[in-house]
Design brief:
Layout: E1 2-10, H1 14-22, H2 27-30, E2 34-43, E3 46-55, E4 58-69, E5 73-80, E6 83-96, E7 99-110, H3 113-142
Antiparallel strand pairs: 1-7, 2-3, 3-4, 4-5, 5-6, 6-7
Helix pairs in contact: 1-3
Length: about 140
C-alpha cells in the first residue's frame, strides 16, 4: 500500500479551493496524469465520477464515489478500476478572507503487479504535487 499526506496553508479562500477540487470535469486542464474526467451523478452530498488516468501512455479508466460537505471535506473511494485500493480525503478550514488550511491524504495500491511497476512512480509523483496543482488552479480561476 502506498500513501501520501500533506497539510498546507494556501493563499486562497476555502470556497475557491473546494470548488476547484469538485470541478472534476476540468481535471484534464491542469492535472497532467488525467486524460479525461466526467461526473456521472451528483446529488445530496455524493457524486460519482469516472476518470481516465494516463500512466506513461497506459490509459486506465476508474470510477469513484465522492462524499462531500460543501467547503469542509471530500472523501473519495474507489468504485472500479485498476486499483486494488484507492481512498483519499480532503479537508478545508478557512483562516481568513484570503487564506485557508488544506489537508490532503491518499492511499492506493494497484491490482496488477505489472501496472504497479509502471504506474506507482507516476501516481506517487502526481500525489505529491496534487495540493500544489489544485492551489495553482484555484489562484488562476479566482483572478
Amino acid at each position: 500500500m502506498h500513501s501520501f499526506e500533506e497539510t498546507r496553508v494556501l493563499a486562497c479562500s476555502v470556497e475557491a479551493m473546494f470548488d476547484v477540487v469538485m470541478d472534476i470535469e476540468k481535471y484534464p486542464d491542469f492535472l497532467p496524469w488525467v486524460a479525461g474526467a466526467r461526473v456521472l451523478s451528483d446529488q445530496h452530498g455524493e457524486l460519482t465520477a469516472e476518470l481516465v488516468a494516463d500512466f506513461a501512455g497506459i490509459k486506465q479508466n476508474f470510477s469513484t464515489v465522492d462524499r462531500y460537505v460543501t467547503n469542509e471535506c471530500i472523501e473519495v473511494r474507489l468504485l472500479d478500476g485498476p486499483f486494488r485500493f484507492l481512498e483519499s480525503f480532503w479537508s478545508f478550514k478557512q483562516l481568513s478572507d484570503v487564506s485557508c488550511k488544506v489537508h490532503f491524504s491518499i492511499e492506493f495500491d494497484f491490482k496488477s503487479a505489472l501496472l504497479g511497476v509502471v504506474a506507482t512512480p507516476i501516481f506517487t509523483t502526481a500525489c505529491k504535487s496534487m495540493v500544489h496543482a489544485f492551489e495553482k488552479r484555484a489562484c488562476e480561476v479566482a483572478k
